[in-house]
Design goal:
This is Immunoglobulin V-set domain-containing protein. The chain is mainly β and 107 residues long. The protein has one helix at 99-102, and strands at residues 11-16, 24-31, 38-44, 47-50, 59-63, 69-74, 84-91.
């Protein structure tokens, strides 16, 4: 779906999925200047996280566990870089431990 908005306009995107075990929805941006996918943020269960480089420009919200929906909000379109393709993806939350971070190694 293409959305045309002008400077200072609000934008709200919605993402949903049908997978009962998926409890994380992630939002990505792909701009014309940089075709790499950049993680904007995600909702895990009902807890939103926005990456530092996108804080203040984007908000994420939703309930990825119960109603399987997440939202990406642009309070206002402010940068040319905001003109981009936006993707959402759903995944199962992964929990893991990195043993080297649990112990302080003597030097």
């Amino acid at each position: 779906t293409a959305i045309l908005k002008g400077p200072e306009d609000k934008v709200n995107l919605t993402c949903s999925h049908p997978f009962s075990s998926y409890d994380r929805i992630l939002w990505y941006q792909q701009s014309a200047q940089n075709t790499a996918l950049k993680l904007i943020g995600y909702v895990r269960f009902t807890s939103p996280t926005v990456e530092d480089s996108f804080k203040g420009r984007f908000d994420v919200s939703g309930d990825a566990a119960a109603n399987k929906m997440a939202y990406l909000h642009f309070p206002k379109v402010t940068e040319a870089e905001d003109s981009a393709v936006y993707f959402c993806a759903a995944s199962e939350a992964q929990c893991f431990t990195i043993p080297s971070l649990l112990y302080k190694n003597p030097l």
